[in-house]
Design brief:
The chain has 423 residues and is of the alpha/beta class. The chain folds into 2 domains: 5-212, Rossmann fold (3-Layer(aba) Sandwich), CATH 3.40.50; 240-417, 3-Layer(aba) Sandwich (Rossmann fold), CATH 3.40.50. The protein is 41% helix and 14% strand. Helix 9 crosses helix 11 and helix 12 (289-319) packs across helix 13 (348-359). It starts with a strand and ends in a 6-residue tail after the last strand.
């Protein structure tokens, strides 16, 4: 199949780079997003996310007429759905959150009217097991004049597959090309067409499986990492109690040829590792005991850091009886969910800073070299490294940005280093 026109639904952290990569191979690509501001920004040659090389790719694609962004779905030969799959708020504390498939449902309804025989529909959004089958059923309800894989098998009019993204923020452009892709079609024919589509720009191997296994593979990758990080985070809490330097301990332990303990931090964040395990837990709550415990441990680490800040504030006040709590200044170094990016989504560092700003009566500062603005409603002031050093009584290192690794240890009265770079 030639795939003369490719449509990408959702122009966020995955959809926009994916659309740009297809366009870089001189394909006619249309990106769809319901946010008018995002569409206008993209069509002007700018990007609304921070990702190296992406803006150059976009500008080249626009100038060559290979890409444009719109708010309404158009006919195409292949549709890639890359929309968010958030969780609904838990009704009570400790309850297992439920995935919200509303964005996928909306994307399905947007695609359905323009579908024609022979089209390929691919879901990339991280999803619960069985979502690709559900998507096909939704499409079938909207278009009874067409046949779909779940009812007509290999000879259906429309092909449907699941292909999860597996990229690292800050390296998306390179990894989209180099990484292997898992292709899970609802039929063998669906998988074959999906492989043909991705091979337009993917140099990595396209590995075929069924849709359910592909869905579970993405969830398993990140649940596995969540469990490994939970071990490191729990170890850091134990070592703090026993007065042991956890980073030295891990360095020594990792000299064993078959041991590779990860580095602890303030918790786990981002749109994958902190989220994906819940899809598994939600599907099998009685069986996913280790995965569920890891989620609790990593969430506990964030609360543990907040308690450390409370203790530090109390220590400052006890050491200086003339000082009031309103005069104690706390500075947070880093707010993003990982180093050297601008992404605040599901960031434990941001959650810690927000939590402290809510209970602390004094000034709260943040040094975040990758973010230019914060929500004005937050009681957090973005400042430079030097300003924080002159004002802060307590410093809390949350993210190991390169700027912090290359800088001196800040001169504050109390330093809480959750990444071990200034110890």
């Amino acid at each position: 199949m030639s795939f003369d026109k490719i449509s990408v639904i959702g122009l966020g952290y995955i959809g926009l780079p994916t659309a740009a990569m297809f366009a870089s191979r001189k394909k006619n690509v249309v990106g769809v997003d319901i946010n008018h501001k995002i569409v206008e920004t993209i069509n002007s040659g700018k990007i609304h996310i921070s990702e190296p090389e992406l803006e150059d790719l976009l500008q080249t694609a626009l100038s060559e007429g290979c890409f444009r962004a719109v708010t309404k779905t158009e006919p195409a030969d292949a549709f890639i759905i890359a929309v968010p799959t958030p969780f609904l708020p838990a009704k009570e504390e400790g309850a297992i959150p439920k995935p919200d498939l509303a964005f996928i449902d909306s994307a399905t309804k947007a695609i359905a009217p323009v579908l024609k025989k022979g089209d390929l529909v691919i879901l990339e959004s991280t999803s619960p097991v069985g979502t690709t089958e559900q998507l096909a059923k939704w499409l079938a309800c909207e278009r009874p004049d067409l046949t779909f894989p779940h009812t007509h098998g290999i000879g259906s009019d429309i092909r449907v597959a699941y292909c999860p993204e597996r990229v690292l923020p800050g390296q998306v452009v390179r990894e989209l090309v180099e990484n292997d892709r898992i292709i899970g079609g609802l039929t063998k024919s669906c998988s074959e067409f999906a492989v043909e589509l991705y091979k337009i720009f993917v140099d990595g191997e396209c590995i075929v499986t069924n849709a359910r296994t592909a869905e579970m593979a993405k969830l398993t990758e990140n649940a596995s990492r969540d469990v490994s990080i939970a071990f490191a985070n729990e170890l850091s809490i134990i070592c703090d109690k026993l007065e042991i330097n956890v980073w030295e301990l891990i360095s020594l332990t990792n000299r064993h040829p078959r041991v590779n303990i990860l580095q602890p931090g303030p918790g786990v964040g981002g749109h994958c590792i902190a989220v994906d395990p819940w899809f598994i837990i939600n599907a099998a709550p009685d069986e996913a005991k280790l995965i569920s415990t890891a989620r609790k441990v990593n969430n506990l680490k964030t609360k543990w850091v907040v308690e450390k800040v409370k203790i530090a504030i109390n220590d400052i006040l006890q050491s200086n009886s003339r000082m009031t709590i309103e005069e104690v200044v706390v500075a947070f170094y880093g707010l993003t969910f990982k180093a050297d990016i601008d992404d605040l989504r599901e960031s434990p560092s941001m959650l810690i800073a927000e939590s402290v700003s809510e209970f602390h009566k004094g000034k709260v500062l943040a040094i975040e070299p990758n973010v230019k603005h914060l929500n004005p409603s937050l009681n957090i002031d973005l400042v430079s490294f030097d300003v924080a050093e002159t004002q802060a009584d307590i410093g809390v290192l949350l993210v190991d940005h390169k700027e912090f690794k290359e800088s001196r240890k800040p001169g504050v009265n109390i330093l809480i280093d959750t990444k071990g770079i200034w110890l």
